[in-house]
Specification:
By secondary structure, the chain is of the alpha/beta class. It is built from eleven helices and nine strands. The chain has helices at residues 28-42, 65-69, 76-95, 111-118, 142-151, 154-163, 169-175, 187-199, 203-215, 221-236, 239-252; strands at 4-9, 12-17, 49-54, 100-104, 107-109, 121-124, 129-131, 167-168, 180-181. The chain has a six-stranded mixed sheet with strand order 1-2-3-4-6-9, with helices on both faces. A three-stranded mixed sheet has the order 5-7-8.
């Protein structure tokens, strides 16, 4: 039985977590299917943006504890192999050439919170909650900390990782874990509106922007400016840029 559903419409690829009876808990199969879906959609030229959403009341309750229980007697290599499956999900999101958007409702816990915040844009329903409660069962929020530390200040990140406390959508937005909280009554419609608007942007410019954004991570100021100048010059050479400038000037000059 498949764990995700995949579709595409008008440039928007959609990956829907489809395990509501388990609150979309992540097991090895689901992790592998998410990676396959991301890679498949991202390699199709028609895909301009990918949205990850979920069936049921929750976005994702984190790791499937029954699946982890089945591995309790496994050796270190088997444990590492299983852990790396979730790591590949996070890496595939980062490496996708197009923006990946999380549409989060209900609970996003542990690896589920990591899945959401690994995305480039996080759109939250007002009822969404985020938490990293792994320490409460003797676990470590290990890979998600790589994401968490890059998004929120260190003291907030440590507080969330060490206490496992929950954040409301509004609190998560204030800390920077969430890009926008959308109105409850129009949540699905607003997610579609934002994603389809993004899909209509010049695709090469969008891809170059995502690539440069993450390449600048950790660079010094002067190195970042220098790399930005290179990206700026390369963008000027594209047909998208030339056509965009000409359209803008034509409108400003009163052309049709």
């Amino acid at each position: 039985m498949t764990r995700v559903r995949v579709s595409r419409s008008e440039g928007v690829g959609r990956i829907t977590l489809a395990r509501p009876e388990k609150k979309n808990a992540l097991d090895r199969q689901m992790a592998d299917e998410i990676v396959q879906a991301l890679d498949s959609l991202a390699t199709q030229p028609e895909t301009r943006v990918i949205v990850i959403d979920a069936e049921g009341d929750d976005f994702c309750a984190g790791a499937d504890l029954e699946a982890l229980e089945a591995l309790l007697a496994a050796d270190r290599e088997a444990q590492l192999d299983d852990a790396r499956a979730l790591g590949r999900v996070f890496m595939s999101i980062r490496q996708a050439p197009v923006p990946v958007v999380a549409a989060v409702h209900g609970r996003a816990l542990a690896g589920g919170a990591g899945l959401a915040t690994a995305c480039d844009i996080v759109l939250a329903h007002p009822d969404a909650t985020f938490a990293y409660p792994e320490v409460r069962i003797g676990f470590v929020p290990a890979m998600v900390m790589t994401i968490l530390r890059r998004i929120v200040p260190a003291r907030h990140a440590f507080d969330l990782a060490i206490t496992g406390r929950s954040l409301s959508a509004a609190e998560a937005e204030k800390l920077g874990l969430v890009s926008r909280v959308l109105p409850a009554e129009m949540f699905g419609m607003k997610v579609d509106e934002i994603c389809h608007a993004l899909a209509k942007s010049p695709p090469e410019a969008v891809r170059r922007t995502k690539k440069l954004f993450y390449e600048l991570e950790g660079r010094s100021f002067d190195s970042g400016i220098a790399q930005g100048a290179q990206a700026n010059a390369e963008a000027r050479m594209t047909a998208e840029f030339r056509e965009g400038v000409q359209r803008f000037l034509q409108r400003r000059r009163g052309g049709s």
